[in-house]
What does this fold into?
Amino acid sequence: MNPRLERIQKKIAEKQPVVGVFVLLADSSVSEIVGYSGCDFVWIDSEHGMLDRREIYQHVMAAQSAGCCAFVRVPGVNEHQIKHILDMGPDGVIFPFINTAALAREVVSTCVYPKDGGRRGIGPLRAIHYGVDSEPDYLNVAKDEVWRILQIESMEAVGNIDEIIGVDGYQSLFIGPADLGMSMLDVPRAEKGAKINRITEEICQKASAKGIYVGSCAGPSKASVGALMGRGCHWMTIAQDVRILSGMLTEAIKDIHG
It folds into this structure.
């Protein structure tokens, strides 16, 4: 079993906070800093971040070398791109806008080898430490070495949640509150927060009953993380690299100039 994922699962079982940071900047030292800071995972964002294939690869290595999990968000369900990512040896792959059970099943299929009912091509490379580890041994356990994480971020997905949760072969859902709120076209802005909270709690209850973890977005504070955990969330992002930098500098400049 992947020792980094084991540490996260142990913390979840002990009801400890599991937190990480969105990383969009290209320099892999950012992921290394996130790991050294004590975060449990780095969310390497190739959906919104301007990251090419080599930069993603370097972020995965940097995060893991600093002791935390490397989760890579891909732009969508693209079989060829997913193959490249999996062969890099990340700890999780995150899929945005999984609105239907059919799409969830496609995700699982692209991530596992034919022996496990999927269509992933063989060529694990870094996932077997460049051949130091046994490839046949890896093929036997590969489906358990990487989390498949499905994002729930639309009311369409919420409407299909029972069917999505019922799909086999993934480990976690992640509720994206920003896009979920954007999809609430008939809900007044002032009411969206409370509705998202109710939906989060309901999804957490249903997923937990099936042994599925749930993540979401918290603020960088004990109170915010605690509130999400109180709704049943198991892991959460607490910040974004570019906003950490811009926010700190903006506040410093305001303070300097009075």
